[in-house]
Amino acid sequence: MPRVLDAEERNRLVSEAAWRVLVRDGIQALSVRRIAAEAGLPPSSLRYTFPTQSSVRIGAYEMVAERLMARVAAISPDDDRWARLVLLELLPLDAQRRLEMEVCLAFGTAAMTDPELRHTFRSVHRDERALCERVVRSVRVAAADVPVEAERLHALVDGLALHLVRQDPEEDTGWAVRVLDAHLARLG
Q1: 90 in helix, strand or coil?
Q2: Domain boundaries, the chain
Q3: 16 alpha carbon, distance to own chain's centre
Q4: Of the four listed, 61, 124, 167, 168, which is most buried by Cβ atoms within 10 Å?
Q5: Could you tell me how far CA 124 lies from the centroid of its own chain?
Q6: d(CA 76, CA 70)
Q7: Each residue of 117-175: pLDDT tens digit?
Q8: SS3 of residue 76 by DSSP
Q9: What is the CATH number that goes with domain 7-187?
């Protein structure tokens, strides 16, 4: 007997399946049929919530951003380490965040030639930039310096994330945390 899933659970299963297919087989392999097989669902069940390949891509990309924002929202703003903890969420320091970053990189590259995906890329980019600005403001950078320091921090976090994803998963990630900590100390 087929299992009954609510829409939210189906979206989660489909998005996570899309991530696995994307990272394992590449963006050219992202088909509704392949994603459905990976999720253990009949392809017809995807057609209601994800009628096109583009909608699957956008949904999977948006889920990465939603998970990041949920993790950030769970960090108490009263925690003295808030800025550091938020920035650590932007780095692929564990298997889950590494998978999410690989997905972001693949979709970000695809967005260069896919106008539908480009909108989602820009939204994710703005959200990350806004987080960096909140971090800069939280460490009491002078108001006049906030825009440039937020851009610098955003570039630093993106660069660190790219380097972490390109290194072997078994390699030490502590170097990136040390770089981030040194930058935060300079800001604060």
Answers
A1: coil
A2: 7-187
A3: 12
A4: 61
A5: 8
A6: 12
A7: 999 999 999 999 999 999 999 999 999 999 999 999 999 999 999 999 999 999 999 99
A8: coil
A9: 1.10.357.10
